[in-house]
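Now for a specimen:

…
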Amino acid sequence: MLTDVTTWYLEMRSPTQLRSVAPPSEHARVARVEIPLAEFNRFLYVTVGGPWYWYERLTWDDARWRDYVNRPDLETWVLYVSGTPAGYVELEAQAEENIEVAYFGLIEKFIGKGLGGYLLSAGVLRAWDLGARRVWVHTCTLDGPHALPNYLARGFRIYDEKTEQIDVPV
């Protein structure tokens, strides 16, 4: 189905731009995936992205997932609530000390509980700790309705916007 999709490209150029959010409860914590595991990243991608048309990686085979997660320029951070995975953020180091928030989101059951701002804050703080000169992300009208407002509330600024027709799977 052809659909008009607007994509916003956002960035932070200084850690002072981040408007961080503290953990909403003592039951929420963010931890790095220390041992890359393709199956776990696939689970996060499918579970978080399922309601929002994340379909680009659905055809990846095991080898492609392993190659993706085993790169030294990728970190995966998971939000746990009472020991249960609730969302994740993938940080990808790129040229010129840019770090992209490559994927970010919450599992549907955890949306609307004040967790997204905390998870994004933790991810962006980590990006700055890694020595980023610039942290950037993109989101679009196919993402959850809280995505763009969360990025803006955390201090990201839109630097580009594009609208195009995309053939979205039904």
Q: What stands out?
A: The chain has one domain: 2-167. Residues 116-129 form the longest helix (14 residues). Residues 2-167 form a domain with the Aminopeptidase fold (CATH 3.40.630.30).
